[in-house]
Sequence to fold (240 residues):
Amino acid sequence: MEQIYPKYQKQCKLIKAKPQTVQFILNYSKALHIQKIKGMTIESNLN
Amino acid sequence: MQTQIDDAILVSNYINGDERAIEILINKHNQRLSSYIYSKVLDSAITEDIFQDTFIKVIRTLKRGSYNEEGKFLPWVMRIAHNLIIDHFRKNKRMPKYEGNKEFNIFSVLTDDKLNVEKQLIKEQIDNDLEILIEKLPKDQKEVLKMRIYQDMSFNEIAENTEVSINTALGRMRYALINLRKIIEKNNIVLTN
Fold:
């Protein structure tokens, strides 16, 4: 029978990013402000 | 199809300032994206890094208004992650990382030529003691020895600077070393590291 399962089981592991990582991304999103003024894009990070 | 519509609404809400929308999007695709990255890099810490960088790119693109909604949010995010995975491997190829294992520790063959803290302290003490001993030498010998050892000057340069012949400079150096040894022996000083 053909081997249909992967050779390396480790590659199929279901994992999730840690809550801290998600929180960091959310904080980054809240802090990031992008404005377009006279054709220029200004990025500011308000921490 | 439902998922794609939901994503499109959430993206649109986020662009319009609803921060909660991005949280829902991240949580919704967290496992799928993380598992995809992990299947390629096989390292949890690197997976977290790439996941984070992916969403930072997503957020910046959405906030800049550069995202073109075609109902393909997840494939777009996966493509960003895929490109970051390629970048990661390219960077690692330029700068390979090696981690030892139980059988072989890389530090058993790689050594740091710096002295350890204890030896460094001993060396400093010896250097200080030596400076005190050098001060006890006659002025002309002390001058030649300092120029040779501390200023790394050649005997030709020492002879020129002290306005003596090269043989006199060599002789002074020789007597300086003989006298230093005598002082060390006389005072029973141990100068070893």
